Amino acid sequence: MFNSGFACMCVVFVSCSCSNALPTKPNQEAVNYRPIIGILTQMVVDDAMKPFGTTYIPASYVKYMESSGSRVVPVRLTHTTAEYEKIFHSINGLLLIGGAVDLEKSDFARVAGIFYRLALTANDAGDFFPIWGTCMGMQLLTVLVAGENLLSNTTAENIAMPLNLTAEAQSSRMFEGFPMEVMKALTHEALTGNFHKYGVTVKAFHENEKLEHFFTILSTNVAENGAHFVSTMEGKRYPFYGVQWHPEVNRFQWDSKHHFPHSPNAVLVSSLLADFFVNEGRRSSHCFAEPGEEASSLIYNYTPVFAGNFTGYEQIYFF
Ligand SMILES: *[C@@H]1O[C@H](CO)[C@@H](O)[C@H](O)[C@H]1NC(C)=O
Ligand SMILES: *[C@@H]1O[C@H](CO)[C@@H](O)[C@H](O)[C@H]1NC(C)=O
Ligand SMILES: *[C@@H]1O[C@H](CO)[C@@H](O)[C@H](O)[C@H]1NC(C)=O
Fold first, then answer.
1. Which of 8, 135, 196, 287 is catalytic?
2. CB of 255 within 8 A of CB of 269?
3. I want to staple 235 with a disulfide (CB 3.0 to 4.6 A). Which of 212, 240, 255, 303 is the partner?
4. Contact 204, 223 (CB under 8 A)
5. Measuring from atom 13 of ligand 3, which residue has the nearest CA?
6. pLDDT tens, 303-312?
7. Which CATH class is domain 22-318?
8. pTM
9. What tens digit of pLDDT does each residue of 160-213 get?
């Protein structure tokens, strides 16, 4: 029995990308052992990156997802709405990465909005589809939910901090698999790298009914200007997650001018969160209609460029 909202026509003995989306026991949720996470490409704004392409994905985000047993599909910003619907029904989750573009008018925001609305409808219909936003990706999630831009100056630029976990963090889905010692380390050690100028203050969050109903705050931090900002959140009803900080840098970025946390606990936090999100992806039974289409969509068709000498990233995929 396939728990699929999409017609994955699988014939016995014929290879099929959804053949593992089977309940492991009667009455258990389907488990997809071949998850594919879509990463929305980010728009190039940095002059030094312009010769290579118009959109990009830092390889750190790709490795972050791959390291937990997922494959990655880059999602371009040039498709039609019908094509995005097809992609949506082919992938098992979406990662919205950091960057610096307009959160309402950019193509990045427009395409993220298409996936966000498709994911709301799908989840409402029992078709599980998770979304994760990191840094600007999280900011974008707040704009999509609130229907307005609530960001203000919450500058925490190039600083690693512990998290001020809320009481709700203890019973959250995101931190459920975290051992007690790691939860303790999260609140005492500087395990979360911050590289942002804007964010949503705790006050703005609580004053906005839509955000307040949609997300639970799991952690807060204090910005350079003293503003308390939301640093981690998860959807109450939907499998949507946001971190204002950058879990991927702990394992996959090394520029010594940046305060990337690399301690054993920092590496563990990064692994546990990637494991968590890919496990969420395993609960989605979407798949590509046929193997050739899947193969030509995967990030393996692209080669990252060494970028350590002109950006703060080691490697970048350009499109
Ligand atoms: C945690 O919250 C306390 C009390 O509001 C604050 O003084 C402290 O700076 C916060 N820690 C971080 C790392 O933001
Ligand atoms: C934000 O606040 C920081 C720290 O107080 C300040 O240095 C910076 O100029 C402010 N940025 C903006 C865009 O207002
Ligand atoms: C960066 O390094 C690559 C390969 O080592 C080289 O081809 C390229 O010109 C360098 N770019 C800059 C901006 O220095």
1. 135
2. no
3. 240
4. no
5. 310
6. 999 999 999 9
7. alpha beta
8. 0.93
9. 999 999 999 999 999 999 999 999 999 999 999 999 999 999 999 999 999 999
